[in-house]
Amino acid sequence: MQFSHDPKLNEIAVKVAANERLDFADGVALYATDDLPALAKLADTMRRRLHGSRTYFNVNRHFNFSNVCYADCKFCGFYRTPRQPGAYTHNVEEALRIAGEAVREGATELHIVGGLNTKLPFAYFTDLLSSLKSAYPQLHLKAFTMVELDHFARFYKMSDEDVIRQLKEAGMDSCPGGGAEIFREPTRSLVCAHKCDADRWLELSAKLHATGTKSNATMLYGHIESAEDRVDHCIRLREQQDKTGGFQCFIPLAFYPPGTKLSHLPGPSGVDSLKTIAVSRLLLDNFAHIKAYWVMLGKQLAQVALHYGANDLDGTITQGGELSESYSVENNHEVKMTKAELIALIEEAGFEAIERDTLYNIRKDEGGGRKDETDNAASSFILHPSSL
After folding, report:
1. Helix (H, G, I), strand (E, B) or coil at 166
2. In the prediction, which pLDDT does 84 show?
C-alpha cells in the first residue's frame, strides 16, 4: 500500500525515513497536504524515534506579576494601561504567598512573566527573584521572555549581559519561550509592532544560552500569518538551535481571539492545530521536545496532538494572580489540572506519563518508583547530522 495519496508527502516520507533534514519547501508542502493520517504517522515516527511512548508533564504554577504593558499587541487580551479597570501589579508578598501555595501543591516550577510595565524599577525584578529563591529554594524559577529582557536592557539602560547576569544572580534559573509570536515581516510588525524584532529575540536567546541558561521557544499561530510565515519561523529557530543548542522545548500557541483586537478572526481549527504540531516536530529536528499546550488547545485536542508529534503536555498550571480568559479555551476558562488528571489524559491516549522538572530530569514517583534521573532522550539528544 502506498504511504499516502499525496505524492509530495511520499517524497518527504523518504527523507524522514532516512533522517534527512527537511527544507522550506517541504514545510510548506506539509501544511498543504490534506492527508492528515499520513502526516500524523510521519510526525509520530520522529516522536517515537526520540521518546518512544514517553510523554512528559510537570507540576507547576504560573505567576503574572503585572498586566500593565505599553506594547498593546493586537492578539493580546491580557494587557492593560495603568489607569484601565483591571490593571494590577503584585508585590513581593503576594508572589511569596502564591509560591508557598505552589510548593504545598507539589510544584517544582514557578513560571513568571508579565507586561512591560514602565512604572517598575529594575530592583523590583531582582527583589522578586531573590525573595522567592530565599524562601523556596526548591522552586525552579522560569522567568522572563526575551521580549522582557529586551525591555529591561533598553528601559533601564543596561547591557544585555548585565541584565542576564543580575537576574541569574538573583535566582532566575531558566527562561520561558514567549514573545517569539511570529518572526517574519511584515506579519510581525502588523500584530506586535512595539516588541523587539525577530533578530533581537534570537540575539538575546543566544546571549542567554551562552551563560549556560536554557530557554524555550514559541510560535503564535492562527491569526493573520501564512503557512510560509510559520515555516520561516521554525527554520529560524532551527538555525539558532544549531548554533547554541540552548532551546529545550518548542511550544506552538494557538491564537484565542476573544478580548483581542483581532476578535473578528476565528482562530485556528483543530485540523490546523494538529498540522502545526506535526510540522513543528518534523522541521525542528534539533529540538528534543514539542509541547501540546493544553491550555490553548483544550484537553481533548491535546490528547490527539500526542499522536501528531507532541511529547509534552506542560503541567498543572494553577494560575497565580488574576486570570485572563484569553489564555484558556476550556469552557470554564479554568487554567488548572490535577496531577492525576494529567496522568489520566496521557495514559488514555496510549502513552506513558512521566513527571519531569523544568530541565527534563525525571521526578521520583510518590509511591517510591523511579528516582530523579536525567531524561535519556533529552540528555543524549544530538543535533541533526546536517547541522554539525
Report:
1. helix
2. 87
- Residue-wise pLDDT tens digits, 159-192: 999 999 999 999 999 999 999 999 999 999 999 9
Instruction: Output the nine-digit C-alpha cell for 192.
Output: 506586535
pLDDT score recorded for residue 370: 43
What is the rounded distance in angstroms from the CA atom of residue 49 to the CA atom of residue 387? 18
- Cα 74-80-85 angle, rounded to 5 deg: 135
Q: Hey, is 141 helix, strand or coil?
A: strand
Beta bridge partners of 249: 289
For residue 296, the tally of other CB atoms under 10 A from its CB is 25
- Locate 168 and state its grid cell: 541569574
For residue 85, the 8-state DSSP code is T
Cα–Cα distance between 313 and 277 in angstroms, integer?
12
Instruction: Taking the CA atoms of 352, 318, 127 and 130 in sequence, report the sign of the dihedral they define.
Output: negative
Residue with cell 499587541: 73
The secondary structure of 270-337 as a DSSP string is HHHHHHHHHHHHHH-TT-SEEB--HHHH-HHHHHHHTTTT--EEEE--EEES---GGG--STT-----
- CA atoms of 193 and 189, how far apart (whole Å): 4
Distance set, CA 283 to CA 230, 237, 277, 314 (Å): 11, 10, 10, 21
Q: Which of 273-282, 306-315, 364-373 is predicted with the least confidence, judged by mean pLDDT? A: 364-373
Cβ neighbours for 25, distance < 8 A, ≥ 6 positions apart: none
Tell me: the pLDDT tens digits for 205-248?
A: 999 999 999 999 999 999 999 999 999 999 999 999 999 999 99
Grid cell listed for 259? 478580548
Domains of the chain with bracketed CATH: 54-387 (3.20.20.70)
For 102-151, the pLDDT digits (tens) are: 999 999 999 999 999 999 999 999 999 999 999 999 999 999 999 999 99
For the chain, the average pLDDT equals 90
Is there a contact between 353 and 342 (Cβ–Cβ < 8 Å)?
yes
Residues whose CB is less than 8 angstroms from the CB of residue 120 and which lie 6 or more positions away in sequence, other chains included: 66, 89
- For the entire predicted model, the pTM comes to 0.91
